[in-house]
Amino acid sequence: MSLRHFFLAFLLFLSPLAQAQEAALEPLEIITSSGTHLFSVEVMRTDETRARGLMYRRYMAPDRGMLFDFKREASVAMWMKNTYLSLDMVFIDKACLVINVAENTEPLSERIIPSVGPVVSVLELNAGTAQRIGLKVGDHLRHSLFKQP
Q1: Higher model confidence: residue 4 or residue 147?
Q2: Per-position b or e across 85-106, b if 16+ CB within 10 A of its CB
Q3: Is it true that domain 25-142 has CATH number 2.60.120.1140?
């Protein structure tokens, strides 16, 4: 085996390992008037992972999501550049409360989707999930990222 082939094989071996580490799932609960809804989420904690988000993905299981940790409270803006999935974006404040929801976002759009106020996190779910679970402004989330009351 040439050095080039060895290097390519090594990269192919590392790639799934790196993806598996990035894709580590964490439990998240959304509490709405219809009950507690359980999801498994990937948490984006770095600038690099937050910038990539769900770009280029073609599928996300119905019970999955992506949680963006912004580390501090601030107004944020999201977009759908290079994102093929239509999403519901849930904007979450430091009290773990939903402050706004952008439903059924347009895939591949560069339109800015802002929070309506300061948030510490944004949760992305498959489009239609917010309506299916009855998610409303003021609903509560539970995840280790947030201090629980």
Answers
A1: 147
A2: bbbbbbbbbeebebbbbbbebe
A3: yes
